Automatic annotation (TrEMBL), chain B:
It comes from the Bacteria. InterPro entries: Hist_DNA-bd, Histone-like_DNA-bd_CS, IHF-like_DNA-bd_dom_sf, IHF_alpha. Keywords: DNA recombination, DNA-binding, Transcription, Transcription regulation, Translation regulation. CDD domains: IHF_A. GO terms for biological process: DNA recombination; positive regulation of metabolic process; regulation of DNA-templated transcription; regulation of translation. One of its GO terms (molecular function) is DNA binding. This is Integration host factor subunit alpha. Pfam families: Bac_DNA_binding (PF00216). GO terms for cellular component: cytosol. Transmembrane segments: none annotated. Belongs to the bacterial histone-like protein family. SUPFAM superfamilies: IHF-like DNA-binding proteins.
């Protein structure tokens, strides 16, 4: 399911919502989470899961094509931990 | 950040009441959860993809007793962040 399909689903689920309003809501949901992560903040959605920022150390790796040694700088990456309710629902279905 | 912060933003920007905003946020996550429960993936451009993966049986060990056990096959949810989100987090 893509973002635009999710927007349609929300219109179907709530009979009083216009597509434009649904679009605004879905955008706010994901923008709020992105903004929080950008500022290094943790995101915690009960029943769904939580997002945290994890640091990755700098490392040396090889370009698999040329065999050349490249230095990869340290970076931050978002990490998602599935919430208990969703983990159980996904596994049991 | 929690659901309450998302509700607040919808209340401020879209003009629904707090109660309606809270119900809408709840519905959004319910829709996402039931889609994933059915094994479908969720693809959000600019944010990332949520994909259900099947894991086969594997052998493991109880780290406390050293006893060998079989970890049963299961379905797990994975999140792959989009390039856009990763770049934004690294201020690029």
């Amino acid at each position: 399911m893509t973002k635009s399909e999710l927007i349609d689903k929300l219109v179907e689920a709530n009979g009083l919502l216009s597509r434009k309003e649904s679009e605004a809501i879905i955008s706010i949901v994901f923008d709020s989470m992105s903004d929080a992560l950008k500022s290094g903040e943790k995101v915690e959605i009960r029943g769904f899961g939580s997002f945290t920022i994890r640091a990755r150390d700098a490392r040396e790796a090889r370009n698999p094509k040329s065999g050349e040694l490249v230095k990869i700088p340290s970076k931050k990456t978002p990490f998602f931990k599935t919430g208990k309710e969703l983990r159980e629902r996904v596994n049991c279905a | 950040m929690t659901k309450a912060d998302i509700v607040e933003r919808i209340y401020e920007k879209v003009g629904f009441s707090k109660k309606e905003s809270a119900e809408l946020v709840e519905t959004v996550f319910d829709l996402i959860k039931s889609t994933l429960e059915e094994g479908d993936k969720i693809k959000i451009a600019g944010f990332g993809n949520f994909v259900v993966k099947e894991k086969a049986d594997r052998r493991g060990r109880n780290p406390q007793t050293g006893e060998e056990i079989t970890i049963s096959a299961r379905k797990i949810l994975t999140f792959k962040p989009s390039q856009v989100l990763k770049a934004a987090i690294n201020n690029q």
